[in-house]
Amino acid sequence: MTPTVVLPVIIGGLYAAGVYLLLDRSLTRVLLGFLLLGNATNLLLLSAGGPAGLAPILGYAEPEEMSDPLPQALILTAIVITFGIAAFVLAIIYRSWRLVRQEVIEVDEEDRRVAARSQTDADDIDPDDLAPEDRAAMHADTFAADNGDGDGVDPDLDVERRLARRYSGIPSDDVDLPPTRRRNR
Amino acid sequence: MIRVLTPLPVLLPLLGAAAALLVGGRHPRVQRALSIVVLASVLAVAVGLLLLADRDGADAVPVGGWPVPLGIVLVVDRLSALMLVVAATVALGVLVFAVGQGAADGDEETPISIFHPTFLVLIAGVANAFLAGDLFNLYVGFEILLTASYVLLTLGGSAARIRAGITYIIVSLLSSLLFLAAIGLVYGATGTVNMAQLAVRLGELPEGTQVLLQSMLLIAFCIKAAVFPLSAWLPDSYPTAPAPVTAVFAGLLTKVGVYAIIRTQTLLFPGGALDEVLMWAALATMLIGILGAVAQTDIRRILSFTLVSHIGYMVFGISLASQAGLAGALFYVVHHIAIQTTLFLVAGLVERQGGSTGVDRLGGLATASPLLAVLFFVPAMNLAGIPPFSGFIGKLGLLEAGIADGGWLPIVLVAGGAVTSLLTLLAISRVWSRAFWRPPAQAPADESSDAAAADAGPELAPAPAPGPAHEQEPVEEKEPVPAGSPADAAGVRAEARRAAWERHTAVATATSPVTDGLGGEAARERPLRPLPRVMVGSTAAMVVVTVGLTALAGPLYGVAERAAGDLRDRTPYISSVFLGEEVP
Description:
heterodimer; A: mainly alpha; Helix Hairpins; 0% strand; B: 2 strands; globular
């Protein structure tokens, strides 16, 4: 019995096409890629069963002539699993379309947030280590000084203004807090 | 006796799931009671199996009555029985927590009639994977638990969960396909998928074929277990799910992958051809995982990264392939399942109490709820490996096994493990000091989830809700650019830090009790609801379990060592399947 070259070629082609589709951002293509990969794997299982033969039914064929029934049973199970999951993925794609009107895979927002942060968290800095002029408004040591040069303005507003003057053009970082409410006073 | 008990951990949850689905819509109370009873009986069965397996050794049950190499077998040995016990314990704890959460939330967020049956199916899949005596049944077990996990992860179908779910589903599908292809190749090479038979026949194959099959199986399992180069999916997908779901995923699903790696490395391919590769993978998993955890600011994501990182310890123990290494790995698996689940449950409670899991938005939890602080502190220290706890015992066992091995690579891994442990302590204590320990005034309380979304990027943010955070633009954006801004880059960086600090304290002090501001205490006071008792109770029970692991560490380590002995010996497993006869 000579081995067939058709099956390996088909399996290879299906794997290649499946991987290509799987790398796409569009979910429908990813699903199609998954289906192709599933079919390729099923064919691989089939070819693992050895050369083709007669249907493995007792009385219909002699055991030597039968093809191996076990891979076929495995493939049937795999087909059922693939089918069910494909249906679920389709439902997910539909849901994604309903929600965000797109069916591409999105970026992880928390990842982007973490990546965009500056390297030092503000509350890792001990204000006592900073030079006096760098210390925070209303820090114990600088409280009087701040009130002194604050032109009699609300200290918070004053801080905001001074910051804006000094550090404009510097991208904000993770402690980008909402502005204080007391400014309207 | 053991033959009667063996199929039950799979059968009971599956039947329970069917029954729970039937009664679900109309009788939610019956459904809850049913699932709890089912899981409690699974736990009882698992304990019985462990006692019997530890006394009598491994045993196999041919399901369906077919003679052994033809039919499907379920095999119970010390390893699978031990895993079953831990899995059932954790699942029961999480289920009670979920029931408490459902009762407290009025079941709005999660369609509860789906949750319970799916959860039971998940447990059935996990049990099936632990008991499977042939590769294809292992694949089916994986598929059962994965399919259930897809549903659980996307419960409610919100945009974030769908996004996370898609990543998770596609990665899992890919690993399943790899596994299936590997099964096909294994069958083509040996003509069987029965693991006991494979254990004999695989050894007769040419070495190259063996390595190919082994690496395909290992890649598939490493994706599931989130070993480093294949771990990026995990911190991305787990944190968005509901708290109990994340907890059970974190505890169980990756450990099923670890279990499969153990079986592959000990039963199927004992030659140790890829041990060195696994050691490097373990080192990378530990270090890169924990560095990720240090960088995160969300409790759940920190925990997800520590989860990835600590998988490295188990892979380390497995790759040593010595009795001590395997025993340490098994003990660590047991410890880590319990501890990681508990911590995720606590994170769920933190979210409930503080309204967020971002450590930058939390504060003062230790005063707001001392009980919660204790519930977090104990397992957190356990995770970091502080001496009296089981985490320390597990790590110590692994590090000793690494030193006993004697090679230079295990010594590097020992150092890596120690560093990882320290970094875990750092990551965990950052959570502690910010979310629990600092005064609440330092945390901006009125940042809500939409503010968090706004942080992520303007084009992704939802429509701004009318609120104080959005009414006023920050002043610095309106001010004109002054002339003398600092020129050099280092100066910019340093001043940006100062600016951040000043703005931070400006806001914090503005709303501190000292000032009589409009947005003072009243507006910042969170409507403090007491935490639901059932949720706290189940979490506390899990904490007690993790502490109990410390108290029972002696007998547990004994079981782990005996199981490791069985694994290295291989004959108990093989002869239990073939009843001592010659393997065909």
